[in-house]
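Action item from last week, closing it out:
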Amino acid sequence: QVQVVESGGGLAQPGGSLKLSCVASRTIFSSRDMYWYRQVPGKGREFVAAIPVSGSTNYADSVKGRFTISRANTKNTVYLQMNNLKPEDTAVYYCYTPNTWGRGTQVTVSS
């Protein structure tokens, strides 16, 4: 069964940066489309970014120009570089590959 585990969350100041990582196991990582979502209390999960096996990356309008998704197939890892963070980026960030969610990592942006 595929597993994905996120890390790298924490506290950042507005305008700061964080880099999230998601390691996948029990799968052929290079054949999987990978995604980041986020969720705040009381709301549904929101799409953040996607990096398919082939084709272009895709971003939510709210993070375009600030976040960058990338992958390292040799490390079974997908990353989310988050720059110029805003308080509204505060959420639990989830890694997703079809049929599998991680447990999430908390990102808090506050001064």
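Closing note: The longest strand covers residues 18-25.
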